[in-house]
Amino acid sequence: MIDSTLPTPTEKVALAPDLRSLSERAIRAWTERMAVRPLGDRYAVDSESGATYVVDPVEGTCTCPDQQLRGETCKHLRRVAIEITAHRVPPPGERRADCAACGTETLVDRDAAEPPLCPACDLERGEVVLDRETGDRLVVVRVAPDRADEVTIPETGRTIADHATNDGYPADDLVVEAVYLGALGQEQPRRYSFPYSRLEPTDDAAIVDGVPLPAER
Ligand SMILES: [Zn+2]
Ligand SMILES: [Zn+2]
Asked: Are 186 and 214 in contact (CB under 8 A)?
């Protein structure tokens, strides 16, 4: 008798690949002890034998004799693909970074501008956001790598964190530069700086397109 009060089992699946159906090279890629290190868009693989080879997964090349002489998809290339899929190393062109807003480890483009932001925290240039204090709609120019207590407002001589209407937002918030949506038609819309938490993404997730925004600097 099956106890019907138990939770429904998950779908019946195998977690590891079926090694019996794999080629010799694929089995070795899974079972041999190797270390993989990102090298820009390529990866260094320290093999079980002690030799180190360089794999380029985009070009599909490896410096090992197996690949060089026989032109086979060697175990090092396969291992790099396995480690990328398992999120043990970042994919080509990306790097690991701690999100500057929430601290979660994330993958960003290797040449992405500072600060690194995870997909949940990232504010796109041109994205429309809401000022929680006034309900005004603003258009994001950029998320600056500086913190609210590090940036001084020239007119007041005080930091963004010390600004009266920013009371209650974290002093070490990132700084977001934005222009008022209503000012966009102007020749030189003025750019204002806000603590990151003061701005709320809007539901419509509108991206202002085709309207010139101030340069990111
Ligand atoms: Zn190889
Ligand atoms: Zn984040």
From this structure: no
